[in-house]
Structure formats: structure tokens, C-alpha cells
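Hey team,

Filing this mostly as a record. A colleague (T.K.) asked me to run one chain through the structure pipeline before their review meeting, and I want the input and output archived in the tracker in case anyone asks later how it was produced. No errors, nothing strange. Just documentation.

Input sequence:
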Amino acid sequence: HTFINYYICAIHVWNKVKYAKTNDQIRKTYSSIVIQNLKKSIVKNAAAYNYCFGFYETNFIIDKQSYIFFNYNNLPHTENSAGTLLINNKINVLNFFGVSAFLLADQNGKFDFSEEIKLIQNENITIDKEYDFTYLVPPVEDYKTAIEEYNFRMDPVKLVPLQKQIKEKDNIISTLNQEKTTLQNELNSFPIKKQRLELANLEQDLIIKKLESKKLAKSLGIKMSIINPKITFIQANSAKARIQNHLSYKLGQALIANSKSILGYIRMPYVLSYIKNKHKFEQKAYEEKIKENPNLALPPLETYPDYNEALKEKECFTYKLGEALMQANKNWYGGGYIKFIFKDVPRLKREFGKKG
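Output structure:
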């Protein structure tokens, strides 16, 4: 009954064990006690240290029904202690709780000195130089002001690299957006739309000519398959391929391929017209690309390794036949086609040893 009405301020615990050597092991080696009175109960844990700690519950008063005992029933902890590290919500690791001492305070004593402190603060107290050690205390306010001024000056300096990076990223984004806009404008530009329209018209014209050829063939009682004119396209790595992409060569190909049957002769005008229009469209598209980017221009034929072979291709029967047809087309009003059929074709066959 000696300590009835006393406050429990702190507790000294000795929970040390030999196997808990590292700090991590000590923190995970713990146990708990129950301290209770008539009004409340505290379940406090402690790790395997030799240390003293206080209570979160500051108004625990010892009465006639106050007890302290080991937490055998594994009641949930109401308070943790500094250094304790619970593992898997385990209540106790040790089977004991080493209490060395309690720090108690008589509740009849005075614990609140706030009024006295205010009185002292308002009084002008003079300290003898012999006992005045205030010079050892740094001028905190001055330091605080100096630090704030330093931060005020240095913050913008620290931000400069970040602002530079942000500006560079903004410039990249701006450039990409401009390129996107330029490409979009090119796609929507009049020349591109015109090219698409011309290509669509060319394809539509071919369909119409196919239908006309089928109609004519049907009236003659001839079965006709879909027209698939053979066209050679440019290969940038071959001079021979570039010669074969000339209109003269492509027309010569079509003349030879379609002169082997009645059906071929029937569809020949449509095939030749298609090849001519297609070639014209491709050349126009190529020229416009060169205007936009001169680097896309094909190199001179002389620079290709197969240049000599390409020259032979230019002197072949197919090329000369197409060339003669183009000349006849230029002079159609003066009997160019008649001259082509009855004079140029037989002459070329004789020169190249071709049989009709």
C-alpha cells in the first residue's frame, strides 16, 4: 500500500539473452507484461535490451487493485517500446519479462510548472559574468536567416539545369509537331490529291477498257481472260532495269505479247493506252519527288556496273519496236500508223531476224 495513488512514469527492463547478439536479433526477441488497475489495463512489450522507457498512457495511477504480470494469455499489445520489431504479429518470443524497477511519482506533487516558466520569461534576470555561458550557444536565429538567404539564392541556380532540360525537350516536341504538321499538309496538299485522283482515274479507265474488250470479244465469239499487261518498273541498282522501264521498251513488250492471237490484237489498243498513261503518271510522280528532294534522283546510267549490257538492251528488237510505235503516234495524222504496220514492223523483223 506504500505506492497507492502514485503515477507510473517509466520502467527499467532487463530482457537480454545470450543468443540475441545482433541488433536485428535483439529487436525481434521480445516479451510483454500486463499492468492494470480498476479503470484500465496496459499491455506493454519490450525487446531484449537493458533499458528504461516510459508509457504512452500518462495517467495510470496505482490503486488497491493494481497488478503487474506476464502476458500469458497473449493479449494484444496496447503499447510498443522503442526498438521492438514484431514478427508475424507474434505477441511473445520470450517466456519472461525482466522488470528491474519502476519510476513512480506522487500525484500529490506538482508536475505543471508552466506558470512559473512564464514568470521567469517575463522577468529581466541578470546573470553574473562568472556564470554566464550564453556565448557558448550559437546565434540560431542568425544561422536560420543565413540559411534561408542561401537557399533563396541557390534554388534558382539548382533549377537552371532542369529548366534547360525542359526547354530542350520542349524544342524536340515542337520540332516533331512541326514535322507532323508538314507531313500532314503534304498528304493533304493539292499535288498529292491530284496524283491520287489521276491514279484512281487511270485504274477506272483500265476497268472500262477491260469491259469494252470483253464486250468486243463476246461479239466475236471469243473467250477472254482479264487483261494483265506486263510492266517493268525501275530498279535503282540496275541500268538494264532502267532501260526496260523506258516507255519504248514497255510498249514493245506489249506489242510482242499481244500479237500472238486474235484476242491479243483486240485488246492491244487498250493495253497500250494503259501502259502509256501509267508510265506518264509514274514519271510525273518521280519528277515531283525529285523537286521535293533532289537526293532521290537516280544516278547516271554510266555509273552502273551493267551499263554496257544496258546499251545492248536499248538496241534490241523490243525497244526498237516500241520506239517505232511512239514515232508513228507522233505522226498519226500523216499516216504514221500505216507506215508503222506495213514498213517499220517488217523492216525491224528483217533486221533482227524475227519471224511474223
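Quick notes for T.K.: The radius of gyration is 52 Å. The longest helix spans residues 140-187.
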